[in-house]
Amino acid sequence: MRVGVLTLSDRAAVGEREDLSGPAVRQRVEQEGWQVVRTRVLPDNQPEIEATLTEWADSGELDLILTTGGTGMAPRDRTPEATLAVADRIAPGLAEAMRAASLHVTPHAMLSRSVAAMRGQVLIVNLPGSPKGAIENLSVILPALSHAVRLLRDDTDSDSGHHPPRKSVKA
């Protein structure tokens, strides 16, 4: 799987704070044996986020884009809006699963506005901005991501895991 990791943080973008979330996500993804092809840190600027998501998704170099940051309720948190602005379709189950699992950790999970969506054959998933939250949320959806990407790529074998093997019926 070819992955892009995009960190959204005003302070990290100008060097006021070290980006800890992006490297944490990268490390977790690489533990899965996936290749991180692109990384970038941007400020919470919706047009710039949209342009980067579009460029990355349309490049043909990525299967999955993971964003970290910009998913809260602060006025400058615009990652979900940028994601939806460039998306062809949404994948609500991924964000719902992350929020549901996170509610077992913190009641603040219900404040997350993370979304998951598709642009062409690329899946885009918004993760929280804290390293702990990003990794917890990523861990929830990891078991489904490879299958999701195979479906997006219209892999003919992608449906093979949907149903248990059928027992033969003897006449």
What are the salient characteristics of this protein?
171 residues, alpha/beta, 6-stranded mixed beta sheet, 40% helix
* Helix proportion: 40-55%
Q: Which residues sit in consecutive blocks of at least 5 with pLDDT less than 50? A: none
Task: Assign the structural class, choosing from mainly alpha, mainly beta, alpha/beta, alpha+beta, or little secondary structure.
Answer: alpha/beta
Principal-axis shape equals globular
- Rounded Rg: 17 Å
Strand order of the largest sheet: 2-1-3-6-5-4
Write the layout of secondary structure elements.
Elements: E1 2-8, H1 10-13, H2 21-31, E2 35-42, H3 46-58, E3 64-68, H4 79-86, E4 89-90, H5 92-102, E5 116-119, E6 122-127, H6 131-152
Parallel strand pairs: 1-2, 1-3, 3-6
Antiparallel strand pairs: 4-5, 5-6
Helix pairs in contact: 2-6, 3-4, 5-6
Write structural notes for this entry.
With 171 residues, the protein is of the alpha/beta class. Helix content is 40%, strand content 19%. It has helices spanning 10-13, 21-31, 46-58, 79-86, 92-102, 131-152; strands spanning 2-8, 35-42, 64-68, 89-90, 116-119, 122-127. It has a 6-stranded mixed sheet, sandwiched between helices. α5 (92-102) runs antiparallel to α6 (131-152). The radius of gyration is 17 Å and the shape is globular. The model has no long low-confidence stretch (mean pLDDT 93).
Question: Can you give me a brief rundown of this structure?
Answer:
With 171 residues, the chain is α/β, with parallel strands linked by helices. It is 40% helix and 19% strand.
